[in-house]
């Protein structure tokens, strides 16, 4: 499969001191550190950089290097031995003793040393890979110790946990930082296939002209997971599927599908278009949401015996825009389900002037699918004549794995997004106005603490979730 133009050489970022708060945590080990190593491997880091891990306990630089080595062995797509490990590890530092507004621990000293080594004007990037409840305190500390100036600050998701929490955090953040310094990460926006949503729509008349309620019967953003929550039960029980996935990743992808064509693909125009789309989300109501909890969830250590946390959620979202009026956006995600997928399906309407007898078309025969998992893929199903003597129709799928495109080098989402931070490109990050509307649209669901409906592990969730998708029905399991 050929991709047309030769890719432009990526820009080289300025020298940086990358401060990784939460460097001992799950996210840092599984995603951030392996992504940083991948950037080194791809030659996408600046010529001069230092990474300083920050934590509350003290450890030596060598102990931290051993931890990073172990994380790369366990989670990296490239093993340390297969990459530039020695040059990489020599640039790792650790600053213990925590970091609060009253006490910076060892961090200021380590930043000073790093700047002595690579230049006083090396830019600071603070990556808050921390529990979301701590974001405000760490932001205040960044301000209090004078390390905000010229810095970029990356916030993990969720940015707030409610409308009030979001507003309070937003105020603290804007007391300390200018909006242009803030990078709120949602890694689903960094997935290659999510970015194909724009390419397919805006670069192909066939799809661009069909991207509306006249042609699309339903949009489905479907992210079932077989994954358990046993490894992060404490985090999960205080979070749940609605906050962890629905109002973060699934909402942002819905906004990518729903947005009006931006004036350009520049960061400001794209973020504006996405924020505008979220503004048109009609607030979800409980009768259009199904919450589920898999059987056995409450027996997991660290889960409350009477927990009402949902491990599954499905929602029918309406978007009050001229383009999407009357088209259901069906969103579904859950843990311990029958299969793992990350699909965006646009189900097209049957043609109006079809000369075939009623019921002559295969059900859901025309679906455009963006597969967000892994390196990503595009797929299209069409109604076609089954070769043979009679005019019988069947459904055929065609698929384009993105890694099959020549010249392509799919980057994992965290790698792509961290590289964007280093370059200062905010196009794939969320904006506060877009997020405020997220919390408004999600308020009723996040406030729902009734007992969720039970479902069997290994199933497709509660039966009521099937009802939500009628009359089109879920494309998955398909
Ligand atoms: N884990 C994942 O798969 C994903 C996580 N995220 C987000 O990333 C962020 C971090 O998640 P994750 O790494 O799983 O979280 P962890 O629970 O593993 O916490 C990360 C680290 O934060 C540090 N920390 C600093 N202050 C506190 C505090 N007051 N209370 C608790 N810990 C503190 C701890 O390090 P120390 O003790 O050394 O100070 C801890 O190791 C969250 O916002 C999460 O939503 C997003 C996508 C995926
Ligand atoms: O942010 C999260 O995302 C993962 C799924 O994303 P993946 O692309 O890394 O598979 C999800 O399992 C997790 O619960 C959530 O916190």
From TrEMBL:
Amino acids binding NADP(+): 22-29, 56, 157
Catalytic activity: D-glucose 6-phosphate + NADP(+) = 6-phospho-D-glucono-1,5-lactone + NADPH + H(+)
Pfam families named in the record: G6PD_C, G6PD_N
EC number: 1.1.1.49
Signal sequence extent: none
UniProtKB keywords: Carbohydrate metabolism, Glucose metabolism, NADP, Oxidoreductase
Sites where the protein binds substrate: 187, 191, 225, 244, 335
Highest taxon listed in the record's lineage: Bacteria
Family in the record: Belongs to the glucose-6-phosphate dehydrogenase family.
Protein name in UniProt: Glucose-6-phosphate 1-dehydrogenase
